[in-house]
Design brief:
This protein is α+β, with helices and mostly antiparallel strands. It has helices spanning 36-40, 78-89; strands at 10-13, 29-35, 47-54, 57-66, 70-72. The longest helix has 12 residues, at 78-89.
Amino acid sequence: MKQKFGKLTFIRVSEDMPISMRFFDSGFNGIVDATYSQMYGGNDVSKYFLYKIEGGKVVNKIGWYKENQITMLDDQDKEKAEQMIEAYNLGG
């Protein structure tokens, strides 16, 4: 796998965004959904679409964050990530 973070990985997005991303959400925990390449084809595996987490729940789906703006969290649980995403998608 060429991408740095796999699908369903719990991550932390940096507080520091470049000026070109000043309106992007920052400083939050999330779950990796997919890379640009996985969603649209091509070779770009360095930009990620993420699920944003607040209060222990997924609250939004946003992109495109660069891999150098993301850090993998110590605690990983793909089943929990799937459950959180399912609850978000089903409105709960």
